[in-house]
Amino acid sequence: MAPPLPAAAEEDGGGGGCVARWMRREVLLGLALGQFVSLLITSTGFSSSELARRGINAPTSQSLLNYILLALVYGGILIYRRQPLTIQWYYYLILGIIDVEANYIVVKSYQYTSLTSVMLLDCWSIPCVIVLTWIFLKTKYGLRKFIGVGVCVAGLILVVFSDVHASDRAKGPNPLKGDLLVIFGSMLYACSNVTEEYLVKKSNRIELMAMLGLFGAVISGIQISILERKELHSIKWNAGAVLPFLGFALAMFLFYSTVPTVLKICGATMLNLSLLTSDMWAVLIRIFAYHETVCTLHIPFTTHMVISS
Predict the structure, then answer these.
(1) Could you give a GO molecular-function term held by this entry (predicted)?
(2) Is the pLDDT of residue 207 over 80?
(3) Single pTM value for the model
């Protein structure tokens, strides 16, 4: 909530009140968009989990269609406007590499651990984002943020511990390996988010999405030709395989299209805090859609993280 205006500004009845109201609207818009992207990220997790259940292991291929859509839609707008690039292309190349590998690693983790664990453990990106924005973007944080980081790290330890020692093997064939992949992928997501925040404030959303889509598609295509050709040939392309692929791509496209706006309004830290509610949706999906038992450590951790955010 915005602080109350000083008496002079209230009596003025003009600029100060308008600015305060505009700021409140901007913050509320950022929060609403944050919850929208939270639902989208839950949708991508559900799609990846469904593909993993069907034995489909093609993480780079899942992301390729999203990058192609970004390149076509936003690249077309960029070409129509005939605007030169405001940032050197190699910055977008670096971002593309980080983003593709982050998606690859996190989607790969669904082969080894549960949807719930992936959605909970990806909150490791929050302390990583705070550290990176503090170092590189000179963002200042109060004591409450660092207390939140401590809670986050403690929760991560609990979730990993519960996955290692749980008797519920529905979590996946190798929960510890899956958990470690998520943690590493979350670090890359943090690097990607902070880089995007920097670039979108230096250039614009259209250029960022167009170039990320272009380089992401090229890098994904190369990686697929090396790592996933056999897997793609072995997939039976029925409705059970095609629909999760398309659902993942559409959710990712909407997610990527919305994220730059959230970053510009609220920054990378608020974006990652907003995504915490996806953990709650993941727990509900596992209980009601998959009819699985959730470890007792997952529920209090999820509730506490959502409330504290």
Answers:
(1) transmembrane transporter activity
(2) yes
(3) 0.80
pLDDT tens-digit profile of 138-175? 888 877 777 766 776 676 666 666 655 554 445 567 88
Q: Is the pLDDT of residue 213 over 60?
A: yes
Written as six digits, the tokens of 139 are 């963002």
